[in-house]
Amino acid sequence: MKKMMYLFALIILTVNCLVQAVNPLLQEWDTPFQTPPFDEIKNEHFMPAFLEAMKAEKCEVEEIVNNDEEPTLKNTIEALEKSGKLLDRVSRVFSCLNGANTNEELQNISKEVAPLRAKHDDDINLNEKLFAKIKQIYDKKENLGLTFEQNTLLENYFLDFVRSGANLNDEDKVKLRNINEELSNLYVKFKQNHLKQTNAIALVINRDEDLAGLPDRVVQAAAEMARARGMEGNWVFTLQKPSFIPFLMHSDKRNLREIIFKAYISRGNNNDEFDNKKLISRIASLRVKKANLLDYKTHADFVLERNMAKKPENVLKFLKDLWKPALKRTKTEVEDLQEIIYREGHDFKLQAWDWWYYAEKVKKDKYALNDAMLRPYFKMQNVRKGAFDVAQKLYGIRFLKRNDIEVYHPDVDVFEVLEADGTHLGIFYSDYYPRDGKRSGAWSSSFRSQSNIDGEFVTPLVYNVGNFAKPTADKPSLMSMDEVETLFHELGHGLNSLFGNTIYSGSRRVPRDFVELPSQIMENWARDPAVLTTYALHYETGKPIPQELIDKLEKAKHFNQGFMTIEYLAASFLDMDWHVLTDATEQDVAKFEKESMDKIGLIPEIESRYQSTNFGHIFSSGGYSSGYYSYIWAAVLDADAFQAFKETDLFNKELAASFRKHVLSMGSNDMMAQYIKFRGCEPKVDALLRRRGLE
Ligand SMILES: [Zn+2]
User: Fold this and answer.
1) pLDDT in tens, 185-195
2) What is the DSSP string of 458-517?
3) Which of 162, 237, 462, 513 could form a Cys-Cys staple with 633, CB 3.0–4.6 A?
4) pTM, whole model, 2 decimals?
5) Which of the four pLDDT bands, split at 50, 70 and 90, describes residue 200?
6) CA of 40 to the centre of ligand 1 (A)
């Protein structure tokens, strides 16, 4: 019997080995710059790769724990930094595909892996022997003669462990594990519901007259969407941004605008199998419990401790200070919009689904400017080149198209990024068009981070994903101004990753409310008149955008800024309200949200597009929970930082070099100090208020 068992085990082992032998995720990548071999990676490779990679990391950690030598930075912290490389690689490829090109199989894997991964991470983070070693080093760090970077790295590890519960007693550790596991499952479910509802057909039009007001481009895209969904001859609109926003802006059919707007904000709130309300109540409740376990009053206290803002009171005060001038401005915007409604002979009151439509009219009326005038100048390829050129003028880097690097979808383009002197800096992938398997929004991430341990310089592999206007049968991708800014924004995140220049990637952690500075600052160049003329070229004639249009853009700069700011701030308050809860009782989502909006005095003409049930930033992961304010916090920084260029030279190379060195290439637990090294003083809010016309 024993022999049989042995034989059986041997067979399994052999089968396992066979699987692994052909699993490209577990092998050395013999590709240019060790980029992921996407042609070979199949869905079925992920699960065994995840299991194998977790096993490998566990072994590595065990080795660190069982080392009898006195714990040192090298044999503990640096060893940890080197561990888990395989898991990191598998997770990053998976996360890219599951976000940008997912399918049912990947989603099932994600569901299956999430709890395993949560447990795996907890096994490490709650390993007592390991923490004892880290603590031993941390307690004597003053006497170790550490460099600034080593000190940052050590602090990051120590605090990560403490914040993951390393100081808890056994009973509480078990409680924390259970919470983490449940949360990870809830996030996956939220994300999947969100994707299903965003891709759902929101509106099918089958009569010509219902297309009134819509630009040809939009109509054509809707016809193509109908064809793709097997509804040839109709026009289909989804809740993906490039489909939904133009409809809201241009459709003359008020009732249809109402339908699509309500469908958008009701994602996850339709009392069907994809409803997110229960998930949200549970997530919020678990976050309170987790915060309390770790000895914080609220989830926000827990999160903000490591941000520049430090405390919920600081965030709330900051938001309130902006709320007042923005609300004041919004009230005059309402008057402008209502006036047009009356002038058109209607007697209804402006509603949330009218805002975008009449705002477009005000823009046309007051500034003789509309979306359709600009799009022909924003062909994706030109805009992308424009963003690359800005990076080149600032930092001297070049983007070289490569056709020999494998991609996960034909829409993906790959570039090699080179320093001014030709040194290889990293790889940049762009993936800009919407598709069913892609989640909404835009993001930047990487398949590999920069590091330089033991003199082995690892270069980064960075990618940007967006959902910008798709090319149609007879037109290339023609982007909106908003999308143009997003492309520059994501490239800014990309540069942040590409410029990483530290020994340890773990030392580059920066606070959430700082992380949008590198991205948002790029939007300033996108909008700048002097830069626009270089990349905004008509897609047919190649002629640069005329001065007349630039003047109009400049004049309309403050247009709708009240609305934009208020809509955003409302979402930030909602996020904070969910996370300053001290009571773990599960909330009634609708009631909670209404009270939250009533409290700040949101005007009825504005309904935020970010309702709890579709607020992926805060509920589809821990990511931006009590951190949605970060964008506007960082906007204060980016407006102030860009001012430094405006005051001197838009492409001031010295300033750019200092920005790269102090802000982009390294991390610190005191990013304000880093900022001051670049700017000479703390940022002032004035530049932001001026930029938005809210003074
Ligand atoms: Zn960003």
Assistant:
1) 999 999 999 98
2) EPPEEEEE--PPPP-SSS--B--HHHHHHHHHHHHHHHHHHT---S-GGG----TTTTTH
3) 513
4) 0.86
5) confident
6) 31
Pairwise CA distance, residues 238 & 234, whole Å? 13
Q: Cα–Cα distance between 99 and 104 in angstroms, integer?
A: 12
Task: Say if CB 690 and CB 683 are below 8 A apart.
Answer: no
- Closest of 239, 218, 238 to residue 228, by C-alpha: 238
Residues 93, 36 contacting (CB under 8 angstroms)? yes
Secondary element (H or E) of residue 237: strand 235-238
- The confidence score (pLDDT) of residue 19 equals 44
SS3 content of the chain, % helix, strand, coil (to 5): 60, 5, 30
Q: Please tell me the predicted confidence (pLDDT) of residue 35.
A: 98
* Cα–ligand 1 centroid distance for 516 (angstroms): 5
- Cβ-contact 480, 378 below 8 angstroms: yes
The 3-state DSSP class for residue 403 equals: coil
* Mean pLDDT across 599-617: 93
DSSP label at residue 209: G
What integer is the mean pLDDT of 639-666? 97
Ion ligand 1 neighbours, Cβ < 5 Å: 516, 519
Distance, CA 69 to ligand 1 centroid (Å)?
Answer: 43
Single-letter amino acid, residue 358 = Y
Q: How many residues does the chain have?
A: 695
Q: Which tens digit of pLDDT belongs to each residue from 552-563?
A: 999 888 999 999
Asked whether residue 589 carries a pLDDT value surpassing 60, the answer given is yes
Verify whether residue 155 is a known catalytic residue.
Answer: no
Q: Number of helices (H) and strands (E), helices first, in the chain?
A: 28, 9
* The two three-digit tokens of residue 206, written as one number: 């089958």
> How many Å lie between the centroid of ligand 1 and the Cα of residue 664?
14
Q: Residue 3's pLDDT is what?
A: 42
* CA gap 134, 145 in Å, rounded: 16
**With contact defined as beta carbons under 8 Å apart, do 190 and 206 qualify?**
no
Query: What pLDDT, in 10s, does the model give residues 321-331?
Result: 999 999 999 99
Give the pLDDT score at 21: 57
The alpha carbon of 486 and the centre of ligand 1 are apart by a number of angstroms equal to: 8
Catalytic residue among 52, 78, 416, 490: 490
Say which residues have a Cβ less than 8 Å from residue 507's Cβ, sequence separation at least 6.
149, 150, 152, 153, 156, 666, 667
Ligand 1: distance of its center to the CA of 489 in Å? 6
501 vs 315: CA distance, rounded Å: 31
